[in-house]
């Protein structure tokens, strides 16, 4: 059984996106409740705030000012989808800080794997822009920390959210120390991630059509993406864990089931064991059907623990 630490913070519930916004606080509540019920033995740690220096490794000063200085009351739309509220700075700092702390923990051998149950999500945020519900790019901040703080030369980012992680790709596409691998639905937000977007040879995108189910998803990973990960020999595996590829999700049209997320996570555990001493840090991204999100997260965490879904870790 792998050792797993959970990272979260109550402030992540205070990022207020307004009425009927799909990226709502209930998402995180449902993940935390379901994972706690399935695995009551998991130790949860309160995420620290990311520092300015950690954020500035991937973002510019202007984005920090935008996210960290919301209006004192109400909400401000940064784009039609993306909102900051008075609670957003603390939520965004804790979400990014969770990944940094989790990287520290796995690199120092305090745990094998870590799951960061946080919001707002991050993988659409670019160097200078919040977008697509994302304020800071949590997974990119974590990767940059692994590169700078620990001097790693090979960090892999696995993105199985149904949307392409355009921000993550843009941040690292010229940095061969980072490998970015993604499956996502073709032809939907953010309309990037074509197969011919290869960065410096360190980006592999596998867009799949609407309706793609577990067969197509697993085939893409088994035949294309996992071999690329294996060849890269990652020293650390980071996961943008979005569960909006579930067939019940209202934001996209994949036909996946929780077991598909569990399967991929198990494969990542095997790959990480070969080259990365088992080190995996996973961060919550999307997932907008509360029940599907909770079940996907439980299947994912079960595989991270190398446990059967529904059984406690100890
Ligand atoms: Zn998504």
Structural write-up:
- An eight-stranded parallel beta sheet has the order 2-1-5-10-9-6-7-8, with helices on both faces. The protein has a two-stranded antiparallel sheet with strand order 3-4.
- It is built from nine helices and ten strands.
- The radius of gyration is 17 Å and the shape is globular.
- With 314 residues, it is of the alpha/beta class.
- Mean pLDDT is 96; it is low at 310-314.
- It has one domain: Arginase, Chain A (3-Layer(aba) Sandwich).
- Zinc ion (ZN) is lined by residues 161-163, 242, 244, 285-286.
Order of helices and strands: EHEHHEEHEHEHEEHEHEH
| Classification by helices and strands | alpha/beta
Total domain count: 1
The 3D shape can be described as globular
How many H/I helices?
A: 9
Key attributes of the depicted protein:
314 residues; alpha/beta; Arginase, Chain A; 9 helices; 10 strands; disordered C terminus
Provide a compact summary of the structure:
The chain is of the alpha/beta class and 314 residues long. Helices cover 38% and strands 15% of the residues. The longest helix has 20 residues, at 88-107.
Describe how the helices and strands are arranged.
Blueprint: E1 4-8, H1 25-38, E2 43-46, H2 52-56, H3 61-68, E3 76-77, E4 83-84, H4 88-107, E5 113-116, H5 138-150, E6 155-159, H6 166-172, E7 178-185, E8 203-208, H7 214-232, E9 236-241, H8 258-275, E10 280-284, H9 290-305
Parallel strand pairs: 1-2, 1-5, 5-10, 6-7, 6-9, 7-8, 9-10
Antiparallel strand pairs: 3-4
Helix pairs in contact: 1-9, 4-5, 7-8, 8-9
